[in-house]
Design goal:
It contains four helices and no strands. It is an all-alpha fold and about 80 residues long.
């Protein structure tokens, strides 16, 4: 799926599976950028989708889904 993630990368199988399942999209140009920090909004999206809130995200948006599922309660964070 991604030109910048060789099959020898320690997370190759997991990233491939999560891409196939629709959890990851990567960046343009078939890049995943495996050595960069994940943005908090992407982490929340992954968590919510794993919890079954993917459809709710599509309907109401990420912030509404996070509030409804209470995944941000008590969390202080920055963008990464």
């Amino acid at each position: 799926y991604y030109n910048d993630m060789p099959r020898t990368h320690y997370a190759y199988n997991e990233v491939t599976l999560l891409t196939e399942e629709g959890y990851f999209q990567g960046y343009g140009g078939a890049q995943f950028r495996p050595d960069e920090f994940i943005k908090s909004e992407h982490a929340y999206s992954l968590i919510l989708k794993a919890m079954g809130y993917g459809y709710y995200i599509e309907l109401k948006g990420l912030k509404a889904a996070a509030a409804y599922a209470e995944v941000l309660d008590g969390i202080t964070h920055n963008d990464e």
